[in-house]
Amino acid sequence: MPSPLLPIRERYLRLACMGFQIVLAAALLAVALYAQYRIPFHTVGKRKVILTRTVLAVVGVLLGIVAATLAPDRQTAMVAFLQSFGVVHVPAAFILFLKRARREGRS
């Protein structure tokens, strides 16, 4: 015989999972902001800065749209979009972090 508390447990687990997903999305957005902020410090020329920022943002939006269309509901779609946007920026943020740690100039 199933427990009468099962629906409560399922709702709690879903809520906890969504809370984790929201925290992850916030962390990935912070990474995206860091990457966008650090690009001018390590890139020569205003055109290259604009191009790099634009490419990252466009790829992030496109991946976010794909992730959002695969999500089961609107709330999950928004979180998936934000996470995907942030994930695109992770490699760039890591490289820029290393460049800053090594005190490298513009390239």
Structure description:
Helices cover 84% and strands 0% of the residues. It is mostly helical. The protein is elongated and about 65 Å long. The model has no long low-confidence stretch (mean pLDDT 90).
How is the topology of this model organized?
Elements: H1 6-42, H2 46-70, H3 74-101
Can you tag this structure with a few keywords?
mainly alpha; 107 residues
Brief characterization of the structure:
The protein is mainly α and 107 residues long.
Judged by helices, strands and strand pairing, the structural class is mainly alpha
The count of β-strands is 0
The string of secondary-structure elements, in order, is: HHH
Show unreliable segments: none
Total number of helices: 3
Mean pLDDT: 90
Proportion of helical residues: over 70%
The major sheet is characterized as: none
| Coarse morphology | elongated
Give the strand content. under 5%
Rg estimate, integer Å: 19 Å
Distance between termini?
67 Å
